[in-house]
């Protein structure tokens, strides 16, 4: 009986140790959410200013402000976190990956992920200089469809290297959305970020 208790105690100790160790997350394609989380922290620490211009069915609004904390920055960039769906385990193997493509409009290279099935992230393109750690632009088409609405969004993130750090300097969201039994709505949001 004492031997069983010792074995059970040892197993509990091993189990507790294994729970404390954090295993690094593996990504099937590209760690979009990690990149955006890092940018949220950087922009918040830099007290960056956001100039935002929104247009919904021709009605424009413009504002400039400094988001008050990392939660506010995360809310501003919320839709871009949806791109991490590309790494959902059920989507593994459902994207064609092309690397080393040349951008005809710049000196950047492109890595492209194109869905071969009906997926929320239709495609994701990473524009980079020399290697993926030197990202300059992310472009993606995100599609949303359920019983209440149907829509798509072209999502773009623009980055620059500032003081040896990759920094988000602009983003845009353009798309349309149709509610069940409602009219279609076209919208666009453009954000420009300035570091202080």
Poorly predicted tracts of residues: 1-24
User: Biggest sheet: strands, sense, closure?
Assistant: 9 strands, antiparallel
Strand content: over 45%
Number of domains: 1
| N-to-C SSE string, H for helix and E for strand | HHEEHHEEEEEEE
Which term fits the overall shape?
A: globular
Radius of gyration: 21 Å
Q: How much helicity do the residues have?
A: 10-25%
Secondary structure tally: strands = 9
Average pLDDT, to the nearest integer? 87
Q: How are the elements arranged and paired?
A:
Elements (H helix, E strand, L loop, with lengths): L1 H19 L11 H14 L3 E8 L2 E7 L4 H7 L1 H4 L13 E8 L6 E7 L5 E8 L6 E11 L3 E14 L2 E15 L4 E11 L2
Antiparallel strand pairs: 1-2, 1-9, 3-4, 4-5, 5-6, 6-7, 7-8, 8-9
Q: Can you walk through the features of this model?
A:
The chain starts with a helix and ends with a strand. It has helices at 2-20, 32-45, 70-76, 78-81, and strands at residues 49-56, 59-65, 95-102, 109-115, 121-128, 135-145, 149-162, 165-179, 184-194. It has 4 helices and 9 strands; from the N terminus they run ααββααβββββββ. The chain has 196 residues and is α+β, with helices and mostly antiparallel strands. It has one domain. Helix 2 (32-45) crosses helix 3 (70-76).
